[in-house]
Amino acid sequence: MQLLILLYLASILSGFALINVPTTAIITPGIANFFDIVGGIAIVVFSFVLLYHGIKSLIKK
After folding, report:
1. Which of the chain's ends, N or C, has fewer CB atoms near its CB within 10 Å?
2. Rounded (10°) CA dihedral 8, 13, 14, 19
3. Which residues, 6+ apart, have CB-to-CB distance to 9 below 8 Å?
4. Per-residue exposure over 23-52, b if at least 16 CB sit within 10 Å of its own CB, e if not
5. Non-local CB neighbours of 19 within 8 Å, separated by 6+ positions
6. What is the pTM of this model?
7. Could you give the CA distance from residue 50 to residue 59 in angstroms, rounded to a whole number?
8. Which three-class secondary structure state does DSSP give residue 61?
9. What is the pLDDT of residues 8-41, one digit of tens each?
10. Are the C-beta atoms of 12 and 51 separated by less than 8 Å?
11. How far apart are CA 11 and CA 47, in angstroms?
12. What are phi and psi of 22, to 5 degrees?
């Protein structure tokens, strides 16, 4: 179970990394906007999953 939680935390960090991708000659502003959206969705989804697992473990005890 702890490895799964660490995977969720790594997914949240990767979402923050996607949001902070700088625009260069290869990464155009359109692609950067897409990365912002995908990163934001990843952060929100995996944060809710972590909250769900936390509440579930509190109720279980």
Report:
1. C
2. 130
3. 46, 50
4. eeeeeeeeebeebeeebeebbeebeeeeee
5. 35, 36, 39, 40, 43
6. 0.85
7. 14
8. coil
9. 999 999 999 999 998 888 889 899 999 999 999 9
10. no
11. 9
12. -80, 155
> Are the CB atoms for 39 and 15 separated by under 8 Å?
yes
Containing H/E element for 42?
helix 29-60
**How many whole angstroms separate alpha carbon 38 and alpha carbon 51?**
20
Only one residue has tokens 């969705």, namely 41
State how far the Cα of 50 lies from the Cα of 6, in Å rounded to an integer. 10
Largest CA distance in the chain: 53
Smallest Cα–Cα separation from 34: which of 47, 13, 54, 18?
Answer: 18
